[in-house]
């Protein structure tokens, strides 16, 4: 469970977060949707403890992210927007490195790495150096690194940006599987179709605040619009900064 309560963050004279409060529950896929510059990345970084909010707080499984960043990181998997891989290391070595960062070692580490290799169906590439990996293979390594410690919460910042259809499908299947396991999945996007298709709960952000939230259907009903895209445009009041 991830919660933000009154998060505020300014970069000099830009107010990126302006009292942001929402919940992302276990067993649900929650989408943070907003136009460019709405504050989505700043919000996710505050939850992960990479950014210190000026006021307000974020909690992960009821643990304050600013007070106990290490404990919070153990409970979160981060799927990065860029898959920075060391080309000389194998996929297995990459995953093992992240497992070690999360405090796993010896047999527990080996078992965790093997489990995630099986889960993501990557046995055929596990012992290859990552130099020359395709985009889909690189994505699997990044996903494996994010979930090797079996975090209760998964955070993804614009996960499907730049991914091809096959990689996007693998990613979605994993998100559904984690939801079935009762985990909390929070991802940011400004791609409406993706959010409407994937999310149980949508938080629409504008200028660092929650403008509206609910299921895609609830947001359509509330605005009297048949399509989620029309509902979104109605709710944020402009089409600027939106990707269809
Ligand atoms: N390091 C920084 N220094 C100065 N301004 C920043 C910094 N990071 C973000 N901002 C500003 O804060 C605001 C929110 O940015 P943020 O990246 O959180 O939004 P976003 O919703 O993730 O945007 P996008 O969809 O374009 O990725 C923007 O106006 C941005 O220019």
Rg from Cα: 18 Å
How many discrete domains?
A: 2
Helical content band: 25-40%
Mean pLDDT: 91
| β-strand amount | 25-35%
Bound molecules: adenosine-5'-triphosphate
What overall form do the CA principal axes indicate? globular
> Structural class from helices and strands?
alpha/beta
N-to-C series of helices and strands: EEEHEEHEHHHEHEHEEHH
Strand order across the largest sheet: 6-7-8-3-9-10
Q: Uncertain segments of ≥5 residues (pLDDT<50)?
A: none
Domain ABC transporter: 2-232
Pfam family, one: ABC_tran
Protein name: ATP-binding cassette domain-containing protein
Keywords: ATP-binding, Nodulation, Nucleotide-binding, Transport
Structural write-up:
The chain is an alpha/beta fold and 244 residues long. The chain folds into 2 domains: 1-75 and 151-244, Rossmann fold; 84-150, no CATH class. The chain contains 9 helices and 10 strands. The chain has helices at 40-48, 69-74, 91-101, 106-119, 135-147, 165-180, 192-198, 216-223, 228-236; strands spanning 2-11, 14-24, 28-33, 55-60, 63-64, 76-79, 153-157, 184-189, 201-206, 209-214. The chain has a 6-stranded mixed sheet, sandwiched between helices. The protein has a 4-stranded antiparallel sheet with strand order 2-1-4-5. A hairpin with a 2-residue loop joins strand 1 (2-11) and strand 2. Helix 3 (91-101) crosses helix 4. The protein is globular, with a radius of gyration of 18 Å. The mean pLDDT is 91. Adenosine-5'-triphosphate binds next to strand 2 and helix 1. Belongs to the ABC transporter superfamily.
